[in-house]
């Protein structure tokens, strides 16, 4: 509506508003009507494009309607209206327009913030200094006694009085404009500040999105780098281990004393390195989304026993006792035995590594039923799916435990509770992340509970896909 809108970024302070935008038109019309009632003189308010906003009738209405009935009266009246509409008026003061009827209009500009936003056309009123003309030009049908009577109903008033009323009316309108402007200003400033905040947020969001994309790309590069490097390292390392084994077996001649010890150390360290490289390789497969399960009917106890035997040498070295408790008959499961074994080896390996000398590890395996996630709250209990049977494997140790504020992070890749360069325990911080991915790939869950100084319990729940 406003005629001088600025660009979208411009402030509300630079904007120019139309009368109708600044005024509450209903209450403004009420004010105008009470003015017309009070002085018995009608008036019109036009905006800067000469659109009429308010038209209140005064005492002249009957006479004008009478004169308008005659073709000559009608055409003269329309000429007067056009003349007033198109009249050039100054920015200040009032202008006068005399109607063919001898009535008079006073026209005054309405200003806001130094800008002419419209005008008042006050009247018609009957000036004191002008005698009513002879209306015979209206034709034979014109009845002078009627015209005269109606004409005299129009209020006779001095120009000075009208000028005062108009001045007052202009002041009232300008106050109303000011109030309206203040309201618009407040709400627009509020919207502007919210919009500015939102734009900044969007900008930050975009930056975050870009950083995220960059990080994802870096992460992908890191995974593929890790996969390539670890693969390339594994081949020569297997040879180092293989040749050490052959030396120890005496295939290249009997080793003596320290020679045997040295080669033994080479082989052990080589095996450590190999398991480290294998975890990195597993991890990079998980990260790149290339994790595939080779499910086959598997005896879970075989998997558990194989994992225990893998960590037994380490446990023995640290005098850690390993117990195994089986809760009843175990069904044949359709799982990827190697992946589950690897997950358990990682957990058992940690249970040894973070245990105290002479500590204990208890592995408990049993089946339990778990409520399935409800599909919909509206489904009656009788129709909701039956509880699900899951395999639970719990590994409890008597080790150092995990601080409560860190327990949520231990499944993150490369996370270690003690990440200092002087840390006591070796490792990559990948074991738990790999175990979690392997278990989750089976539709299972893995969780940890711990009491600092007392030990930790890791629980694996695997859904049972029974064979046959
Ligand atoms: P790594 O053992 O190679 O450091 P993991 O991903 O297997 O990496 O474990 C991450 C971290 O979680 C470990 O560094 C250790 O701080 C903590 N943690 C894991 N298992 C245990 C446990 N049984 N007892 C105490 N802390 C543990």
Task: Write a structural description.
The chain has 468 residues and is α+β, with helices and mostly antiparallel strands. It folds into three domains: 12-198, Beta-Lactamase, CATH 3.30.450; 200-288, Helix Hairpins, CATH 1.10.287; 296-463, Histidine kinase-like ATPase, C-terminal domain (Heat Shock Protein 90, 2-Layer Sandwich). The chain is built from ten helices and 13 strands. The protein has helices at 19-22, 25-39, 61-68, 71-86, 144-153, 159-248, 257-287, 300-317, 337-353, 431-441, and strands spanning 43-47, 52-56, 95-98, 104-112, 115-127, 156-157, 296-299, 321-326, 332-335, 360-370, 388-397, 445-451, 455-463. The strands form three sheets. Strands 1, 2, 3, 4, 5 and 6 form a six-stranded mixed sheet that branches. Residues 1-7 have low confidence and may be disordered. Adenosine-5'-diphosphate binds at residues 346, 350-351, 354, 397, 399-402, 410, 415-418, 427-433, 456.
């Amino acid at each position: 509506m406003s005629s001088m809108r600025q660009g979208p970024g411009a402030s509300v302070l630079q904007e120019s508003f139309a009368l109708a935008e600044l005024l509450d038109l209903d209450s403004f019309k009420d004010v105008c009507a009470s003015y017309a009632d009070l002085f018995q003189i009608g008036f019109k308010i036009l905006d800067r494009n000469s659109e009429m906003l308010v038209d209140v009738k005064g005492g002249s209405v009957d006479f004008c309607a009478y004169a308008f009935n005659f073709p000559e009266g009608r055409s003269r009246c329309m000429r007067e209206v056009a003349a007033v509409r198109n009249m050039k008026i100054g920015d200040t003061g009032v202008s006068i327009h005399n109607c063919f009827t001898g009535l008079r209009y006073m026209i005054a500009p309405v200003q806001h913030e130094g800008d002419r936003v419209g005008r008042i056309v006050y009247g018609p009123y009957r000036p004191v200094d002008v005698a009513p003309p002879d209306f015979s030009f209206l034709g034979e049908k014109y009845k002078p006694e009627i015209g005269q009577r109606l004409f005299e109903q129009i209020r006779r008033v001095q120009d000075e009085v009208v000028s005062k009323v108009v001045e007052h009316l202009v002041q009232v309108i300008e106050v109303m404009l000011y109030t309206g402007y203040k309201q618009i200003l407040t709400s627009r400033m509020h919207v502007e500040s919210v919009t500015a905040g939102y734009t900044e947020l969007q900008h930050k969001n975009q930056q975050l999105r870009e950083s995220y994309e960059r990080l994802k790309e870096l992460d992908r590069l890191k995974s593929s780098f890790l996969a390539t490097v670890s693969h390339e390292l594994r081949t020569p390392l297997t040879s180092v281990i293989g040749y050490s084994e052959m030396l120890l077996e005496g295939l290249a001649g009997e080793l003596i004393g320290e020679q045997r010890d040295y080669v033994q150390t080479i082989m052990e360290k080589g095996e450590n390195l190999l398991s480290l490289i294998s975890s990195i390789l597993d991890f990079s497969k998980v990260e790149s989304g290339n994790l595939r399960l080779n499910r086959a009917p598997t005896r879970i106890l075989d998997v558990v026993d194989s994992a225990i035997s893998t960590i037994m040498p380490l446990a023995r070295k640290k005098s850690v006792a390993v117990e195994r408790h089986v809760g009843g008959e175990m069904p044949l499961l359709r799982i990827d035995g190697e992946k589950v074994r690897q997950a358990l080896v990682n957990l058992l390996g940690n249970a040894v590594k973070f245990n105290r000398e002479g500590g204990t590890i208890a592995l408990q395996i049993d089946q339990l039923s778990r409520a399935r996630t409800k599909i919909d709250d509206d489904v009656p209990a009788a129709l909701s799916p039956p509880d699900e049977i899951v395999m639970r494997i719990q590994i409890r140790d008597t080790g150092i435990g995990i601080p409560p504020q860190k327990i949520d992070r231990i499944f993150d890749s490369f996370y270690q509770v003690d990440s200092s360069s002087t840390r006591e325990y070796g490792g990559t911080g990948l074991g738990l992340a790999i175990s979690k991915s392997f278990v989750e790939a089976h539709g299972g869950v893995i969780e940890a509970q711990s009491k600092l100084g007392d030990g930790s319990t890791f629980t694996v729940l695997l859904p049972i896909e029974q064979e046959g």
